[in-house]
Amino acid sequence: MNERGVVVVIGAGGIGQAIARRQGTGRTVLLADRNDKTLATAAETLESAGHVVQTRPVDVSLHESVHALAEAAAALGEVVNVVHTAGVSPVQASAAAVLAVDLVGTALVLEEFGRVIAPGGAGLVVSSMAGHMLPPLEPAQDEALARTPADELRQLPFLSEEAVSNSGAAYGIAKRANQLRVQAAAVEWGDRGARVNSISPGIVITPLALEEMSGPGAAGYQAMIERCAAGRAGTTDEIATAAALLLGPDGAFITGSDLLIDGGVIAAIRAGRIQLSIRT
Q1: Known catalytic residue at 175
Q2: The one catalytic residue among 78, 171, 199, 260
Q3: FRET pair for 238, CA 20 to 30 Å: which of 24, 91, 205, 262?
């Protein structure tokens, strides 16, 4: 694998930038986002720190857009890392939009980049602790979320508009699906000699998180921060440190796994110290 490999980072927000800084040294960073302004600002920040950056717009909810991004990445060189951080917040988006971006978009990224990832490369999907908050699904539903082709996911009956009544429920299901699809994709990525994992962050301070924490759910966010074992929110640098393990040689025996990085929120929920209500 040549020194100047390609690191693809999909989603130019705080977590995406932090991981790009950590993984991009000596490589070409292909940064992709739907928002042109966010993309340009993030690229300028990375370039000013000495990184070599290429940019490309992408809408992860559209198969042709993700396919074009994968082709562009492969044309730049060996794709050694793929980091998928793009997503929409249930506070800001409808249930349909959450499923299109967070569910189908992740599935498309895993399918398309599974065809171009270099041998010895590694991928990472940024999921969420929300995927650990749902009650258990039926085994057949888990199987469908894990293995249904991306273009057919929205036709699953239990993902219909009637079945998923609000964006919070859609977000939880999408993030559970992220974890399941990564586990399933690890088999096919392994056939190429590559690995793929997911991480499930808790409350991490980014501009988006701050906006959510000042909204209707502010009290719930504050309770999670105060009552979790860490007693604080996380930082993007902490997420990037965990990502470096999973994307690098020290994580060579880790694939198909999900790493929960939430400061102990899920543990506190299961211990009854944090009361959580999931509406479906």
Answers
A1: yes
A2: 171
A3: 91
